[in-house]
């Protein structure tokens, strides 16, 4: 309902947004956009205190384990694996401002499904590619999907 209202109002007004009604319309779009941003940020907040942060060593161990699993499945070469598991350096993140860090986090989250889709497209063929919407949706291969969670 919250995202459908702006679309319906836009068509109802025949794309003409002038005067006081136009100002109210643009305010509604700002509120809708801030809702998307707020929901995204809320999803990033850990639910438990002990899940607040991983140590750098834990994250490096997880990355190495994922890299080993992917290489054993022979889906990606070593050159292709590096950008797939790339994360910004600790020093780079520490010197960023809060808005820049949020933008970097958003960009990493935006790229991740497309990078995973590239791996899925290699693992599934024919009708499986269509069923997974060219790799954007999970496949029915448990060995492939367990490494992406």
Structure characterization notes:
The protein is an all-alpha fold. Helix content is 67%, strand content 0%. The chain is built from 8 helices and no strands. The chain has helices spanning 4-12, 19-44, 56-72, 78-84, 90-94, 98-123, 127-131, 142-146. The longest helix is centred in the first third of the chain and has 26 residues, at 19-44. The model has no long low-confidence stretch (mean pLDDT 79).
Computed CA radius of gyration, to the nearest angstrom:
21 Å
Distance between the termini: 31 Å
**Mind summarizing the main beta sheet?**
none
Q: Could you say which overall geometry the principal axes of the C-alpha atoms support? A: extended
Q: What is the number of strand segments?
A: 0
- Following the backbone from N to C, one meets helices and strands in this order, namely HHHHHHHH
Please report which band the strand proportion falls in: under 5%, 5-15%, 15-25%, 25-35%, 35-45% or over 45%.
under 5%
Q: What portion of residues is helical?
A: 55-70%
Q: What's the overall average pLDDT, rounded?
A: 79
Detail the poorly predicted runs.
none
Q: How does the helix and strand content classify structurally? A: mainly alpha
Helix-strand blueprint:
Layout: H1 4-12, H2 19-44, H3 56-72, H4 78-84, H5 90-94, H6 98-123, H7 127-131, H8 142-146
